[in-house]
Amino acid sequence: MLIVRPGFLKRELLVKGPLPRLYSTKVPDNSPRAADNEVWLEALRPMNPSRQGRQKYNRGNGQTDLIKVPLGEVTSINYLQRYNKHKHSQGNFVDVRIVKCRSGAGGSGTVSFFRDAGRSIGPPDGGDGGAGGSIYVQAVVALGSLAKMKTTYIADDGEAGAARQLDGMKGKDVLIQVPVGTVVKWCLPPQKVREIVEGEIDKDKDSTLRTILASKTINLSTSCSSHQKKIQLYRQEMAESWLFKDKSPEYHENKDWFKNLHKRMESYDHSLGQSELFYDQFPLTGLDLEQPMSKPICLLKGGQGGLGNMHFLTNLIRNPRFSKPGRNGLEQYFLFELKSIADLGLIGLPNAGKSTILNKISNAKPKIGHWQFTTLNPTIGTVSLGFGQDVFTVADIPGIIEGASLDKGMGLEFLRHIERSKGWIFVLNLANESPVDELRLLIEEVGGLEKVKTKKVLVVCNKADIDFENSKSLAKYIQVEHFSKSQGWDCVPISALREENIEVLKQKMFECARGSQDDASPTPTI
Ligand SMILES: Nc1nc2c(ncn2[C@@H]2O[C@H](COP(=O)(O)OP(=O)(O)OP(=O)(O)O)[C@@H](O)[C@H]2O)c(=O)[nH]1
Ligand SMILES: [Mg+2]
């Protein structure tokens, strides 16, 4: 995944290697004279006939690669399920969003001729269109969830140029601010995914959303110019390449001077299309906005404005009654996923006492209840070992049950909040029949021992106050401790309710949060 650090701009981030020339040659600035225009137009080489047949958006020019990706990679099962079941809505916490983004089209160039009291028609003075607005994204610390995001972001189109060589105004950009820890990925429109899924279910009634997303693949066009795979985005093709005023297109098409100009401008359009292709790419694995950003980065660039008729005045063309339309913007869907970044994550069956622990060790106040699935959304608490001492953060997530990896209970979707945590704290309930089996089950559900081994691990046996006198209770703890030691993990008995052994727990958690993956557990057997 591409990780974005502060101060990075799209140019550095998404685009590597030499930029294709934006124009075949530099267009003279406003107030161009016929001689200036001749130089500019002369330098535009008519396109090679073999390339003329191709679209201006040269999809088949060998610079792109078609790859197959599972449907699940370009959508979010969490998003689709949430909207189907409405099962996880609690308060304002929103951690997955699919939004439609559209950058603005460029404004058209204008056809206009200078007039004053002495001259009813003077030289062409139609200005260029303004560029369309772009869509930017920025990660900021002030936000905690994606709840404030809209479903659609549309940047303004650029304004058309005006007489007297006035260029049109640039379309207003749109800035999307998201919390730090958000991952932005390109995705398919949800309605399209639903159509595909419905089609697959019609074919095979036994298939489920999960199996379809894993097995069905779609073709994606990727750029193969760089080492990192990027999805190639395409703008809608231009409906017309010229805008005519007063005289019809047919009038122009029959004139040799226009045919010659058109050929040259084809290469100009081609060059613009190439630079769009170069910019309109998005990393296949997404952007990981894991740090606050001082500058936003560009998701979708607006279209370039069209040229006004002042640029087509030459010694041969004295009254150009045509101009260029603005280039189209881009419309794409993006998936925004918030992956909170806590140092440690609490993992346990429902009712194990995870929220009670977080409540006792930090100022966070997650809901506590004696029923299962009290916690429906992640809560992050900050733990301090004392005044002026180090602090670390702990995330409490909903309980995990047998079959969670198959989407039972709350599923595993909340695991993403602790995916990037340095350490995982397994919370077991000593009042249960077999806490050690509980631990084995949790390990299996979260992805197996291999995955758990990538983290620092601490095993916490909670509710040690229940059945304290009973020798069976001690035996259960010893079993867990034995298993944990065999994996090289530390184990601690506590009573969160009675706040017993909490200081020891905090100290061990701190060690876990501080430890790097290198000094994670030695090797072990299950
Ligand atoms: N006796 C005893 N009860 C406890 C202890 N810790 C938590 N409890 C109780 O266990 C119940 C569940 O606690 P929670 O903290 O909500 O458990 P949880 O793991 O967050 O549960 P979910 O949010 O459903 O996953 C509550 O009634 C707590 O009062 C403890 O150390 N001893
Ligand atoms: Mg809870």
Automatic annotation (TrEMBL):
Residue stretches making up the Obg domain: 91-341
Matches recorded under InterPro entries: G_OBG, GTP-bd, GTP-bd_Obg/CgtA, GTP1_OBG_dom, GTP1_OBG_dom_sf, OBG_GTPase, P-loop_NTPase, Small_GTP-bd
Any one Pfam family match given in the protein's UniProt record, by short name: GTP1_OBG
Taxonomy, superkingdom: Eukaryota
Keyword Nucleotide-binding included in the entry's annotation: yes
Molecular function GO labels: GTP binding; GTPase activity
GO annotation, biological process: ribosome biogenesis
GO cellular component annotations of the record: mitochondrion
Presence of the UniProt keyword Hydrolase in the record: no
Keywords assigned by UniProt, alphabetized: GTP-binding, Nucleotide-binding
UniProt-listed CDD domains: Obg
Family: Belongs to the TRAFAC class OBG-HflX-like GTPase superfamily. OBG GTPase family.
NCBIfam families: small_GTP (TIGR00231)
Protein name: Mtg2p
Organism of provenance: Saccharomyces cerevisiae x Saccharomyces kudriavzevii (strain VIN7)
Source taxonomy: Eukaryota, Fungi, Dikarya, Ascomycota, Saccharomycotina
